[in-house]
Design goal:
By secondary structure, this protein is of the alpha+beta class. The protein has 5 domains: 168 residues, no CATH class; 291 residues, no CATH class; 182 residues, Bromo adjacent homology (BAH) domain (SH3 type barrels, Roll); 192 residues, SH3 type barrels (Roll); 243 residues, Rossmann fold (3-Layer(aba) Sandwich), CATH 3.40.50.150. 27% of the residues lie in helices and 21% in strands. The protein contains 40 helices and 52 strands. The protein is elongated and about 140 Å long.
């Protein structure tokens, strides 16, 4: 037996027996002998044993040394002086300094005590004393018991930011390193206070980066954020440093910091007299004066509670007097306060314990949102009133995982819950059971305070409030809640990370609702005024559950009350004022109980009575819930450790960033500035006239619809407000008949006319000289003479009928306000239209002077044109002052049906030969609508396109029924908005059967029949095949069918796979398909296409022509579906850079728009401007050949204009001028100049007027901040060949269409042809509904690009822009009726990515592409 010295708390020695397991003694071991094999017991080995039979057992003799366990001896000192001498290492300090570990501070009776009561009683120490320097090894030290007494204690480490606690005796000074386990809780409370003192020091010390002028509130906020990291590494259960905690330690903080002033150097901070410390000291004294009950929750739980009374006099207001009064506290009062702090800490720790989940739960039933929607308000969005802080900043930032029950507890006031789109959302959509998977993201915001248990769910008068009062407050009107919102508690307004679970605690008249994030538990106080209606159903259902439990408890037998009985009793309530009253109708009560059943189930599960938990009511409720539209969530009983990731709350992206500069006023050219400033000098931001000029201008019609968000709305029409005036007019006719006496022909046309009439170029009537190219005025029917102005007609030619009537044929010229420009148009500008009329010369009311302008184009003529326009406006103003008639001008041809302003057809307008260009276009259109059969039935002509035998056709999707076994797959294949939509059917034309007629051309071709061979698409076969196959792949079949000609929708081309591969890669076009398999619909088999099957005799010339890369970059796709109108998409970089348009991308982002344009071969991005640095870096990676300028576009524009010597035309702010000077000469040398840029594209941010009021209240000052002004100024200065603006759909209707109309007006004033429209990205292969507005602009010498026809079926794609006169402009046809390809899905886009399961915490996943699939994937991406 070995005797080891040890000690307990009182210094008495004890012994321990250490020996073998079976209490074997030394004699027993020494007598061990080896037994013979004959007497050795037989041990059977298992058959599966792998032991070798040659192994022999051996017996070893153990000596006494090896049979005993050696225990390290611990040195124990007889006194403090011995320990100090033993641990001495030759130090030179007058007072020895040592380190102290495994220590306990106690009184003379050995009871542990905190250091703070040193001035109340004598304290002693027991611990291990080790040297000040060297390794932290207790073998180097000695244990000393009950030495002291202590004389003082102090805190150091302020400069290092880590507190060090010192304790002093009469003999030495000790650094407290590590307390004993039983003393750690008491010591950690002191260490928290020390950490607060250190952080206050660092916040106020100027040499350490602090600010001595901080106010008390600023000091508390700063210390709270800093302590989230400092304290968290020491103790995970440290409570949040609230204002109450901060004030309660006010005297300690002030005394510690002021004590530092005694030995402060000249360059160190002096803390005496700092405003924050003086305010803190006053708050401490004032709170000591007020009586309060600490911790009412502890009182209910029979914990120790101290009731403070007023013990100070009323006199003495100075800080010194207050401090002296605080020092006058009795020892009992000081001890009572310390004991109360310890009890508050113990209560907090108990509150963090979370009851275990139901071990029998396997799945969690959650009712879907559509079932509870009727019990909640209409959708609304969260509106933040103040700046909010990330909750993760205020809590422990340690990466070590925590269990949910170990998270800190806080309270949330004035709170609201919302989803990732900031839309208010019900708390019921979140699971209430810990361990259930979460299928919805819910976030929250509110004011956070420490959870001290001061109320039961709301913020006012907690002691007298019960659950009924809570419901009443939640159902208050806005007027009632306004007073409550004014009394918001003091705390920090935060935004929460995703909420993971929530629970309801109840008892008698108390209701607690708590939520949990990965950062903390939050007990909910009063919701915000906005969210109160959303919280009302939760409280109502919680009270209803309590009522049902009470009902079951009062029943003689719980099992007698079934679910039906409970519902019947609830419906039979007489008191309709009861907050839990639902309805007197049983079906409505049953619906409410079932759809809100998860709240009731959770409260029943927490109830301690098993009979209540397992009642027949609960069984019936669960059965009813499973019959509703619900979701079953998997439940895991495994203990989950929480890790904090990135806070994905949408508020994180909307917080103001102090590092960003304020918005800068736009740098503009004088032309753009003039157009926009003149408009807002006349109209306000609502499009209403200024009162001073309202009497002289025609008012604008109200916008019939409000602005809509850019979201998922089908068949949405973007509204552009119209002015008075109707485009569809009917000319008045005169009863008088003209005669030769009234009309005098001046000159007769000598050219041959198409109308076989006598055509004249000039005539005289009623004192008016009428001539070709002039403009006449005529009246319209149904118009008010004061409101309606005469219609203007451009004279195309004059002619005389056989009956002698003198006629005029003219094209309508529309005034600017009656076009899409509305009130943004110049009142003197007219636009040529497609409408033409034949009128009697007697109906003419007068003539107008109109100048047909044809100006020079290019950046070289920009200043000359501006000067000419300025002179023209001056002459017009002078004529107006003199009262002379208005002189109009015309520059453009306006076509509402095409949504475009185009260059005038100078060569074909007003020729005077009896041929009208507008009439000719109409006649050609009518001719195209007539279908005819080609001779010998070799094909047919439809809509102007020729179709020949063996061509491949698009047929209407409903031409053939879906396969019997594939119809179900088709329904499953497309969900949501595109469910059931199908692409065109592809067939090959085999023969044409014309109707019987002597003349094939005269026969009714629409009744002809076509013999076709059907090709199947992968989606016709099945859903899996559709997702695995290429979208351009089709299957040959032997199915022959006869269809009518009217189901033909276009033509396409089908080739074998190897025929669509060019020498440099893939040369595939949108209407080209490949076929390599044959499909048998009867057997459902797919086989390789036999070699003898010929899809087409030879590659057509039109197909071969358009596979040539050199022709692709100079052609733009037309409105037709013929292959001739389709351009290749895959263009090599060399060809693109040589022949494509040299492009400047503004607001470039990461380069998505440039990438698409560059892949199409239309452009080659050489310059890009992007303000955000991360996006600019990404653009450089995506477009390494481009020069990227990461700077404000206003600064770059000024630098460009300065480089070009045009600062006289530049209007910019001093800030832009200053920043432009900071650009280096090397940067300026890389800037483009006019003549270098062929194409400008971009999507400027469209800021709302309400968010632009940063300068003054004048309308024009607000509008100047819009980046659209700078974007248009780039186009004005560079005058590129093409210009493209892309923006959200609301750009068209934003601020009642003012921005949209002024943008069109600016481009037209520059001389551009302009086309506008709205496109749906889903029509072009994007797997989402993404609607965008576009504005094309082209130089007058270029062809204005048309919008591409939809290539993919997509619902709700017929988007229109409302025009004046009741007209609508559809940008593209409705692809829901059919398109070349099916709509793409999310599975098509990301279906090949690895799955992300619930609970995944990795922010990034690396995907490795397979090399053997590279060619196939690149093929799909190119298309």
């Amino acid at each position: 037996m070995c005797q080891v010295k040890s000690s307990n708390g009182k210094g008495r020695k004890r012994s321990a027996n250490v020996g073998l397991d079976n209490a074997a003694t030394e004699n027993d071991i020494s007598k061990a002998v080896e037994l013979p094999d004959s007497v050795r017991p037989c041990v059977k080995r298992p058959k599966r044993s792998a032991a070798c039979s040659s192994l022999k057992e051996k017996t070893y003799r153990l000596n006494q040394k090896n049979s005993l366990i050696e225990v390290k001896q611990e040195s124990i000192a007889d006194g403090e002086d011995v320990a100090v001498v033993f641990t001495s290492e030759g130090e030179t300090q007058q007072t020895p300094q040592r380190r102290l570990v495994d220590f306990i501070v106690h009184d003379e009776n050995g009871n542990s005590q905190p250091l703070e009561i040193l001035d109340v009683m004598q304290l002693y120490i027991t611990g291990v004393i080790i040297p000040l320097n060297g390794a932290m090894d207790k073998q180097r030290g000695m244990r000393c018991e009950c030495f002291g007494p202590l004389e003082s204690w102090s805190i150091t480490g302020y400069e290092q930011g880590s507190p060090v606690v010192w304790i002093c005796t009469y003999m030495a000074e000790y650094i407290c390193i590590k307390p004993a386990g039983i003393y750690s809780k008491i010591y950690n409370a002191l260490f928290e206070k020390a950490m607060v003192c250190v952080e206050v020091y660092r916040a106020l010390s100027k040499p350490d980066g602090g600010d001595p002028t901080l106010s008390l509130d600023e000091l508390i906020a700063r210390v709270s954020r800093c302590l989230a990291n400092g304290i968290g590494k020491t103790n995970a259960s440290i409570p949040f440093v609230s204002r109450d905690y901060f004030f309660s330690q006010g005297k300690l903080i002030v005394d510690q910091l002021i004590a530092l002033d005694e030995n402060a150097a000249d360059d160190e901070q002096i803390f005496t007299g700092l405003p924050a410390l003086q305010a803190l000291e006053k708050e401490y004294i004032q709170r000591m004066r007020m009586p309060r009950i600490h911790n009412p929750v502890a009182l209910q739980r029979k914990a120790l509670t101290i009731i403070e009374t007023r013990f100070f006099g009323e006199g003495g207001s100075s800080s010194a007097n207050m401090a002296s009064e605080a020092d006058s506290l009795s020892e009992d009062e000081k001890l009572a306060r310390l004991l109360q702090e310890q009890e508050d800490r113990n209560v907090y720790i108990r509150q963090t314990r979370r009851p275990a989940a139901n071990p029998k739960a396997k799945v969690y039933i959650k009712i879907n949102e559509d079932e509870i929607a009727n019990d909640y308000p209409l959708p609304a969005y969260y509106e933040a009133e103040e700046e909010e802080t990330d909750e993760y900043i205020l809590f422990d930032d340690d990466v070590s995982p925590l269990a949910p029950e170990d998270l800190p507890r806080r309270k949330l006031h004035d709170w609201a819950l919302y989803n990732s789109e900031s839309r208010l959302i019900s708390l019921e959509l979140l699971p209430m059971l810990a361990g259930a998977e979460v299928d919805v993201d819910i976030y929250g915001s509110g004011i956070m305070t420490e959870d001290d248990g001061d109320d039961f769910g709301l913020d006012d008068h907690p002691q007298s409030r019960n659950n009924e009062e809570l419901l009443h407050l939640a159902s208050c009107s806005k007027e009632g809640l306004s007073s409550a919102s004014e009394r918001k508690p003091e705390g920090i307004r935060i935004y929460l990370s995703a909420i993971k679970e929530w629970m309801i605690e109840f008892g008698a008249s108390m209701i607690f609702v708590s939520i949990r994030t990965n950062g903390a538990w939050y007990r909910l106080g009063s919701p915000s005024q906005q969210y109160a209606p959303w919280f009302r159903p939760v409280l109502k259902t919680a009270s209803l559950a309590i009522k049902v439990i009470t009902m079951l408890k009062e029943a003689s037998r719980v099992s007698r009350l079934s679910f039906v009985d409970v519902v019947r009793n609830l419906a039979a309530q007489d008191d309709k004022d009861d907050p839990t009253f639902i309805s007197s109708k049983i079906p409505e009560v049953e619906r409410y109980v079932v759809v809100h059943g998860q709240i009731i189930l959770q409260q029943f599960a927490e109830y301690p009575d098993d009979c209540i938990k397992k009642s027949s009511f609960i069984v019936g409720l669960i059965a009813k819930m499973e019959q509703k539209h619900h979701t079953k969530l998997m439940f895991s009983r495994k203990k989950v450790l929480l890790r904090k990731g990135k806070n994905l709350n949408p508020r994180a992206n909307s917080r103001p960033d102090g590092t960003k500069r304020k918005p800068m006023r736009a740098t503009t050219t004088r032309l753009v500035h003039r157009i926009w400033s003149e408009y807002y000098a006349k109209f306000n931001v609502d499009g209403e006239l200024d009162p001073t000029i309202a009497d002289s201008v025609v008012p604008e019609v109200e916008d019939p619809q409000e602005e809509v968000e850019d979201g998922e709305q089908d068949e949405e029409t973007a509204i552009v407000p119209a002015l008075r005036g109707n485009v569809q007019r009917r000319l008045k006719s005169s009863n008088s008949r003209p005669t030769h006496a009234d009309v005098k022909w001046i000159a007769k046309s000598i050219e041959r006319t198409s109308i076989s009439k006598a055509v004249y170029k000039k005539a005289c009537f009623g004192g008016y000289d009428l001539e070709v190219g002039g403009v006449v005025l005529v009246d319209v029917e149904g118009g008010d003479e004061h409101d309606e102005m005469p219609t203007m007609l451009l004279v195309e030619y004059l002619y005389e009928k056989d009956d002698g009537s003198c006629m005029l044929h003219g094209r309508v010229m529309e005034r600017g306000p009656n076009t899409v420009l509305g009130n943004a148009a110049d009142e003197r500008e007219l636009f040529l239209t497609d409408d033409c009329e034949d009128i009697s010369i007697c109906d003419i009311k007068g003539t107008a002077k109109v100048k047909i302008q044809r100006r020079s184009w290019g950046h070289n003529h920009r200043k000359a044109n501006a000067t000419e326009d300025e002179e023209e406006r001056a002459r017009a103003k002078e004529r107006e002052l003199k009262g002379l008639p208005v002189e109009y001008y015309c520059r453009y041809w306006y076509s509402p049906k095409k949504g475009a302003f185009m260059s005038l057809p100078y060569d074909s307008m007003a020729v005077g030969n009896g041929i009208c260009g507008s009439c000719r276009v109409k006649e050609e259109k009518l001719e195209k609508e007539v279908a005819c059969i080609i001779e010998n039935n070799e094909g047919f002509i439809l809509e102007g396109n020729e179709y020949h035998v063996n061509d491949f056709l698009y047929l209407d999707p409903d031409t053939f029924e879906s396969l019997e076994d594939g119809s179900e797959n088709m329904e499953k294949f497309k969900a949501g908005r595109n469910k059931g939509l199908r692409a065109y059917v592809i067939c090959q034309l085999l023969a044409v059967k014309a109707p019987p007629s002597n003349d094939a051309k005269q026969a009714n071709a629409m009744t002809s029949h076509l013999t076709v061979r059907r090709f199947y698409r992968p989606e016709d076969v099945g859903i899996l095949k559709a997702y695995k196959a290429d979208i351009h792949e089709i299957y040959y079949s032997k199915d022959i069918a006869t269809v009518q000609l009217n189901v033909v929708r276009g033509t396409c081309d089908v080739r074998r796979y190897h025929e669509v591969l060019g020498a440099s890669g893939i040369c595939m076009m949108k209407h080209t398909f490949f076929c390599s398999c044959i499909y048998d619909p009867k057997r459902g088999t797919i086989k390789q296409l036999p070699a003898n099957v010929k899809l087409s005799p030879k590659i057509s010339e039109r197909f071969a022509t358009h596979c040539k890369l050199e022709d692709s970059s100079s052609k733009f796709k037309g409105k037709g579906k013929m292959v001739e109108d389709v351009q290749p998409l895959a263009i090599s970089e060399e060809v693109s850079a040589e022949h494509a348009l040299t492009t400047l991308d503004i607001f470039a982002g990461c380069g998505g728009l440039s990438e698409g344009l560059q892949q199409s071969g239309a452009s080659f991005t050489k310059w890009a401007i992007e303000y955000e640095h991360p996006a600019a870096e990404a653009f450089k990676v995506n477009h390494p050949q481009a020069e990227v300028f990461c700077e404000n576009c206003n600064v770059i524009l000024r630098s460009i204009m300065e480089k070009g010597g045009d600062l006289d035309d530049c209007l910019s702010t001093p800030e832009a001028a200053e920043l432009s000077l900071k650009l280096t000469e090397e940067q300026k040398s890389r800037l483009p100049i006019p003549g270098n840029v062929d194409f400008i594209n971009g999507g400027p941010p469209c800021q709302g007027f309400s968010g632009m009021n940063r300068f003054n209240q004048r309308t024009w000052s607000k509008v100047q901040c819009e980046m659209i002004l700078a974007f248009l100024s780039y186009a004005d200065y560079f005058r590129p060949r093409f210009f493209l603006l892309e923006n959200v759909r609301n750009f068209v209707s934003f601020n009642k269409g003012q921005t949209f109309r002024l943008t069109l007006r600016s481009l037209l004033e520059m001389g551009y042809q302009v086309r506008f429209g709205i496109l749906q990205a889903g029509n072009y292969g994007v797997s989402q509904s993404r609607i965008r507005a576009f504005i094309w602009a082209a130089a007058p010498t270029e062809k204005l690009p048309d919008w591409p026809e939809p290539t993919h079926v997509f619902a709700g794609s017929s988007l229109k822009i409302a025009l004046p006169g009741g007209q609508n402009y559809p940008t593209a046809k409705d692809a829901a009726q059919g398109a070349p390809f099916r709509s793409m899905t999310v599975r098509d886009t990301i279906g090949d990515l690895p799955a992300v399961c619930n609970g995944a915490d990795r922010g990034e996943i690396t995907v490795i592409c397979k090399e053997n699939m590279r060619e196939r994937e690149s093929f799909i991406n190119v298309l």
